[in-house]
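User: Show me a protein chain along with its predicted structure.
Assistant: Here is one chain, sequence first, then structure tokens.
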Amino acid sequence: MAAPKILVVEDSPSDIYILRRALEDLGEEFDLDIVTDGSRAIQYVHAQRENPHEAHPCVIVLDLHIPKHDGLEVLRSIRQEPVLRHIHVVLLTASASPREEAELRGMGADYRLKPFDLHGYAELAADLIAICKGMLTRA
């Protein structure tokens, strides 16, 4: 069985590093695709349409506040793309307005506060692997 693919859309190198380490500490195999801004994330989404037989991510970790296109715009693109719309999206942010929260939940995203310590990243990593293994259902 192929290693699960996790897409991370995040512009903070330190957050990416900590999440990668937390995933590695679990001892599970995984492929991590990293995209650092909203424009590249939307390009990634459209590229998935062009390669429908390629392995798609089992979960997408999406920062709400990223450059070029925010996480809401990226989430809209994901939900409009037939090959990706079913994928579990975990949207992370340090802050979101009540309007943003409502919109995120309305689009089926699992909205969470961005972890602020190693324990929080360890929990997030475990949840991501569990999602990929099908142990958690979409929010």
